Structure formats: structure tokens, C-alpha cells
Amino acid sequence: MNCPVCKKSIRKGKLFIGYIHPRCLQSKRTNFTVKEAGTPAEMRQIEKLCLGTYGELDFIEMGRWYDVRKMKNVVAVKDRRVLGFASWKKEEDRLFLLVILTEPEYFRVGIATALLNKIKSIAQNLKVKSIIVPISNDDLISYVFYQKNGFRLSGIDLRLPEKRHGREKKGFWDLPCRDEFYLEYKLP
Question: Is 142 a member of any domain?
């Protein structure tokens, strides 16, 4: 596996937060603005980040298809560069959060937390009862992140990646990507 920042090989046992060299992380917090995505340039950056991480822009979750290009998006921006984004959609009495994704070199500087806080604020304004987010079984970092931010396991879709791709795929940490977990945050 190669580091997405420096492109050099990562040896097992030398991993940080899953798949990036510690020296490739930003060493301090950075200034950025969180806002609704609105420009074609921001959408192109969202698409590039999503394709670079997942290799696709549309996902099947909970028996439905979702496409980041057709969802509402919030972005973390610095100097017109999208450092991270969150895609969401209101469905009945809940907000479905498809993904929060950050540029790898900006991990652990508060971007994902700021994006999640914006999503929680949007959910409160929409007066929904909960936020639902899917994560695959190999995405241990997201599982920990959402648990630390008040989400709880609410469901599982067995063999979803196999249903989507016709086979089991290798995921983060060289784990087989087999199942999809659904986490829920209940709003007060």
C-alpha cells in the first residue's frame, strides 16, 4: 500500500490512522471555512476526491442508490481548495449522511469534525429525528470517529460490497470489504 500524499510504500506496522505516513500529515491546525458547496469548481474537486478514494461517485446504501453529484454537499475550503466534504440528503424524518471525506494530508486537523458539526446543525434546522451514516466494515477510522461523536450502531447490510461489485474487494488495512454498517445519531 502506498501513502496517498508522498506515494511511497507504507510498511505494515508503520501505518498511522490506517494508510498515511505520520510525516505526511499537517503538523498543526489549518484555517478553513465550512460552507455549502456551490461552485462548479468545488463540485469537480468533490468528484476528484471521491473518485480518488473510492473509485466511484454513486453508492448503494440501504437498498437505494446515492450519487454525490446529486446530493447536497458541504465543503471545507481554504484558498478555493476543497480540503474535505460531506454529502447528505434529507429523507422523511432523518438526514442521510453518505460520506465525510477529507484530503489525506489534512487528516487530524479538525476538518471532519467541523463538517460533522455543520451536518448536525443542518439536521437540527431541518428538525429531523436522526442522522444515519453508512460505513464499510474495513473503515475502522470512520467507525471510531462517529462513535466518538455520539453515533451508535443501528444496522448492518451483510455482503453489500459483494452485491454492488459482484465480488469481495480488498479495503483499508488489507481487510476484506464485506459488510456495511449503519450508524445513527439521535438529535435531542
Answer: yes
Q: Which residue has the cell 453518505?
A: 98
For residue 101, tell me if it sits in a domain.
Answer: yes
Q: How many domains does the chain have?
A: 1
**pLDDT tens-digit readout, 9-50:** 766 544 444 556 566 665 556 789 999 998 999 999 999 999
Asked whether residue 7 is assigned to any structural domain, the reply reads: no
The number of beta carbons lying within 10 Å of the beta carbon of residue 188 is 3
CA nearest to 49, candidates 122, 91, 111, 95:
111
Q: Facing residues of 5 across strands?
A: none
In one-letter notation, the amino acid at residue 187 is L
Domain that holds residue 134: 28-186
The answer to whether 95 touches 132, Cβ cutoff 8 Å, is: yes
Question: Residues 131, 119: contact at Cβ < 8 Å?
Answer: yes
Place of cell 460552507: 35
> Count of alpha carbons within 13 Å of 104, Cβ hemisphere only?
19
**Residue 32 is part of a domain; what is its CATH number?**
3.40.630.30
**Each residue's pLDDT tens digit, 71-97:** 999 999 999 999 999 999 999 999 999
- Model pTM? 0.82
Q: Return the percentage of the chain with pLDDT > 90, whole number.
A: 52
In a domain, 86, yes or no: yes
